[in-house]
TrEMBL record:
<keyword id="KW-0808">Transferase</keyword>
<dbReference type="InterPro" id="IPR051630">
    <property type="entry name" value="Corepressor-Demethylase"/>
</dbReference>
<dbReference type="GO" id="GO:0046872">
    <property type="term" value="F:metal ion binding"/>
</dbReference>
<keyword id="KW-0479">Metal-binding</keyword>
<dbReference type="Pfam" id="PF21322">
    <property type="entry name" value="KDM6_C-hel"/>
</dbReference>
<dbReference type="InterPro" id="IPR048560">
    <property type="entry name" value="KDM6A_B-like_GATAL"/>
</dbReference>
<keyword id="KW-0560">Oxidoreductase</keyword>
<dbReference type="Pfam" id="PF21326">
    <property type="entry name" value="KDM6_GATAL"/>
</dbReference>
<dbReference type="GO" id="GO:0010468">
    <property type="term" value="P:regulation of gene expression"/>
</dbReference>
<keyword id="KW-0489">Methyltransferase</keyword>
<keyword id="KW-0539">Nucleus</keyword>
<dbReference type="GO" id="GO:0008168">
    <property type="term" value="F:methyltransferase activity"/>
</dbReference>
<dbReference type="InterPro" id="IPR003347">
    <property type="entry name" value="JmjC_dom"/>
</dbReference>
<keyword id="KW-0597">Phosphoprotein</keyword>
<keyword id="KW-0862">Zinc</keyword>
<dbReference type="Pfam" id="PF02373">
    <property type="entry name" value="JmjC"/>
</dbReference>
<keyword id="KW-0156">Chromatin regulator</keyword>
């Protein structure tokens, strides 16, 4: 999406009186009920995937070296240069992090997890086991993008048994091969699959008539480690990380949401056997992510710079897969033919992978290992802008934005002082547009004779989403009872059910005067020095 859609059509140095006059300018518009919920300029076209860079890449450029840095000590881990390095690149691997910080990775080992909480829930994905750079359809014998995965649930203890038995079974197969003189141990280690091979156009044997069915595996994913009582030692250990990589930090936008977003501002764990796949994706609302390999085996990563995500989206569509809703594993030859560069690297135990905003990536376990991951939102204009762009595109794609960008933006305006002009203007624009939307909605509701009841907002209360279309509903909630539950609706969905809003209760969480005051108090602060942080806590 072109950054120029953020045409700032209003002067952000307005006083409260000027804001009220701006809202007054739209008075009467709300009565029609034609109220845009867009956070970008009304004059801009709707968001769409961007065209990729036009530069034709040679073979070397299609296989760029992965940005990586090796940490020798704790001082290097906490240097400002490390964060700057990560923010410069689409993806980066920080090697030796665990050793440099003396992180006890054993706290996240399968053995420790079983001892701590054996009955804790694990989501399981049953997948076909195949090489990391290939994705075959067992039926047609052709390379495909669709990544087959079936969902179920188990416990940590049960998955631990499966993980251990899978390892023992593999060792037995190795011994049997050695006994028959067919060992390929020179190309393996005890925790990992064979080393990288050349791309093959020959389908695996499971596609040949009369052969066995493809071998299936179970991937233990999305293990929730958010409970501070259950996982206290594990979460405390992660406080050793530098601030920019921590789960909770003043400089992390996601720490200002004010409530839990599982897997984003909390830790999730992944338990893997060789071949376990995390299919292609960008992070929710394009936030950055942190991933640490606990080991003992390696993981193989593939990544595409965010400038090419539109081209990857186009290839998904060509393969009849929905980019946001579908499960896909890119065929590497297709990417290279489309002039899309791909980073490819191994993440070893103790390595931290930084995924920058908007980077497309997919991951496969090479050996038996566990990983921990979460998201972070550096307080930069680029991070905020990419989050808003995806927030708007998600609406058009009927895909839920699990980061409530309206709620987050208002919290940021209350909690931080910003000295980066671009970040300031982006946030201020979001506040201005939501003020206008709230004013017009209230005008429409009152015109229909519906009483607006002040409801307020509880501490740490979760953000609200429309029960029909799943867009975020900020400040003005339309409530209707459905199946003995009170369901929140956005105004558009409420009007579809009842044009005059009959049967709906309208609740207001903030007084307009309060929002206007917050808006007016959010000002651009001067930068203290060229090297100073671009924000300060209130």
């Amino acid at each position: 999406m072109d950054v120029r859609i953020y045409t700032l059509v209003c002067n952000f140095e307005k006083t409260v009186k000027e804001i009220k006059s701006k809202i007054a300018y739209f008075r009467g518009e709300g009565i029609k009920g034609e109220i845009s919920n867009s956070l970008i300029s009304d004059r801009a076209p709707p968001p769409s995937p961007p065209d990729p860079p036009a530069v034709k890449l040679n073979h070397q450029q299609l296989l760029p070296p992965t940005p990586s840095v090796y940490l020798d000590n704790k001082k290097h881990a906490f240097s400002p240069q490390l964060q700057e390095f990560c923010l410069k690149h689409p993806i980066a691997v920080i090697r030796g992090l665990a050793a440099a910080l003396k992180l006890d990775l054993g706290l996240f080992s399968t053995k420790t997890l079983v001892e701590a909480n054996p009955d804790h829930s694990v989501e399981v994905r049953t997948q076909i086991q195949q090489p990391s750079d290939e994705n075959w359809d067992p039926q047609s014998g052709k390379k495909v993008w669709a990544c087959i995965s079936h969902r179920s649930h188990t416990t940590i203890a049960r998955y631990a048994q499966y993980q251990a038995s899978s390892f023992k079974e593999s060792l037995k197969e190795e011994r049997d091969k050695s006994a028959s003189g067919l060992s390929d141990s020179d190309s393996k280690d005890s925790m990992n699959f064979p080393k990288r091979r050349k791309l093959s156009n020959v389908a695996p044997s499971f596609n040949t008539k009369g052969c066995n069915q493809p071998k299936m595996l179970k991937f233990g994913t999305n293990v929730d480690l958010s409970d501070e009582k259950k996982w206290k030692p594990q979460l405390q250990e992660l406080m050793k990380l530098p601030a920019f990589a921590r789960v909770v930090s003043a400089g992390n936008m996601l720490s200002h949401v004010g409530h839990v977003i599982l897997g984003m501002n909390t830790v999730q764990l992944y338990m893997k056997v060789p071949g376990s796949r995390t299919p292609g994706h960008q992070e929710n609302n394009n936030f950055c992510s942190i991933n640490i390999n606990i080991g003992p085996g390696d993981c193989e990563w593939f990544a595409v710079p965010d400038a090419y995500w539109g081209a990857v989206c186009t290839l998904c569509e060509k393969n009849q897969i929905n980019y946001l809703h579908g499960s896909w594993w890119p065929v590497l030859e297709d990417l290279y033919k489309a002039n899309i560069p791909v980073y490819r690297f191994l993440q070893r135990p103790g390595d931290l992978v930084w995924v920058n905003a908007g980077c497309v990536h997919w991951v496969q376990a090479v050996g038996w290992c566990n990983n921990i991951a979460w998201n972070v939102g550096p307080l930069t204009a680029r991070q905020y802008q990419l989050a808003i762009e995806r927030y708007e595109w998600n609406k058009l794609q009927s895909f839920k934005s699990i980061v409530p960008m309206l709620h987050l933006s208002w919290n940021l305006s209350r909690n931080i002082k910003v000295s980066d002009p671009k970040l300031f203007h982006l946030i201020k624009n979001c506040l201005m547009r939501t003020l206008r939307q709230c004013s017009m909605i209230l005008e429409f509701v009152k015109h229909k004779g519906v009483e607006v009841k002040f409801h307020g907002r509880g501490k740490n209360e979760a953000s609200h989403y429309c029960g029909q279309c799943e867009i975020e509903v900020f400040n003005i909630l339309f409530i209707r009872e459905q199946e003995k539950r009170h369901v929140v609706h956005c105004m558009e969905c409420a009007r579809k059910q009842s044009p005059n809003l009959e049967g709906f209760v309208c609740l207001e969480e903030y007084k307009m005067e309060e929002l206007t005051e917050v808006y007016d108090n959010f000002n651009l602060y001067p930068t203290i020095s060229a090297t100073a942080e671009q924000y300060r806590l209130m």
